[in-house]
Design a protein that fits this description.
By secondary structure, this protein is of the alpha/beta class. The chain has a single domain (4-179), classed as Rossmann fold (3-Layer(aba) Sandwich), CATH 3.40.50. Helices cover 28% and strands 19% of the residues. It has a 6-stranded mixed β-sheet with strand order 3-2-4-1-5-6. Helix 2 links the parallel strand 2 and strand 3 (70-71). The chain is globular. It starts with a strand and ends with a strand.
Length: 182
């Protein structure tokens, strides 16, 4: 595989009223013009731009003046099944699970992190050139799992943050995680 730079931009803050919005199609708060300007400059020339079909991702791309080359269903956030729309404080307590156990847990009617990561990894494996993905926190963690495995679930991924990975041959390296405007 040729060398490739993969930038993953998490969407701007979701307008989800403090509720889990994995596959729920909510809007984004793109009102922080200074942060959008800073991120646009940080991204620079990015190669191909791929975007999740989610409204919050499309709105974020537009706020940064990005015109996605295509939307990709494989970039959707994790499907949280019956947990979708629950207030964060109403989510079930899974107790102490090791990273691999948490990654394998599948909410009823949804997908596990491992399921989502397999979907994301399949999409990323088809990229042999520089690309910018406008997507979700789960997408970022799934990409990081290419390097660190299920421990990627421990990464905090802020809204409107940038994570950068580089591929040389078959391996990936992390260049930057959770870069945000100052």
């Amino acid at each position: 595989m040729p060398m490739a730079k993969l930038m993953i931009l998490r969407h701007a803050p979701p307008l989800s009223d403090g509720r889990l919005a994995g596959r729920t199609d909510v809007a984004a708060d793109c009102s922080d013009g200074a942060a959008c300007d800073w991120m646009r400059a940080r991204i620079g020339v990015s190669g191909e731009v791929l975007c999740s079909p989610a409204r919050r991702c499309r709105q974020t791309a537009a706020a940064l003046g990005l015109a996605p080359d295509r939307t990709c269903d494989w970039l959707w956030e994790q499907d949280f099944g019956i947990w979708e729309g629950l207030a964060y404080d109403a989510l079930p307590d899974l107790g102490a699970l090791p990273p691999a156990g948490l990654a394998a847990h599948r909410p009823e009617g949804g997908e596990s992190f491992d399921d989502m990561a397999a979907r994301i990894h399949a999409g990323i494996s088809g990229l042999d050139h520089d690309a910018l993905l406008v997507a979700h926190a789960g997408t970022v963690r799934a990409a990081l799992a290419l390097v660190v495995g299920p421990a990627a679930l421990s990464f905090s991924v802020a809204p409107l943050s940038l994570t950068v990975l580089r591929r040389a041959g078959a391996g990936w390296a992390v260049e930057a995680v959770n870069v945000t405007a100052p």
